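ok so for the tutorial part 2 we go from a plain amino acid sequence to predicted structure tokens. step 1 is just haveing the sequence, like this:
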Amino acid sequence: MLLLYYYFGKQKGNFLLVASMIMLFFIIMLNPYVIAALLFALVYGMIVAYPYIYKENQETHLVYEEDVEIQSEKNRWLGDLQHFSKDSCQFHDINLLRIVGKDTIHLEDVILVNHDNVIVIRKGFGDTKIIVPLDVEIQLQINTLYGELNFLHHPSRKLRNETISLTTPDYKRANKTVKIVLVSFLGNVEVVRK
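step 2 — the prediction. this is what the tokens look like for a chain of 194 residues:
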């Protein structure tokens, strides 16, 4: 129709342009790969669109077989912080996010019972001290930009933009273990036994 419009209309010069474009279209369509690509695109589009076209709006009810225990604790970003320093209690994993402050984590009065005890500390600036009981084995992973590490009786080690992983010898065989992961920008880390 467009070809007839340009042939009988005022713009007869565009007739050749339209005719050549139509001829080019038919020549391209004779290629079997183009036909296969168009058929593939059509079938793929129908497969993708089918769930959206015939979707039934049904309510979904989630049924939990057991109750979920939720514990919520606000993050204190600034200031000094001590964990487990006053009361003896059962250990719950610690996940700290701090900007600035000195952290002291007392584990000597906490009941550690298995291998799944984890302490994760992510902080910007400040020193961290972790006090561990004598009968607990430790795995320590530290990633820091600038600081110093004092791990048990080992000599002090300066940390400069590096990751260190230390494990006590009986970590895999022990009944009580704790895994400590610390990521900091600037600050010293001390792990001692009492």
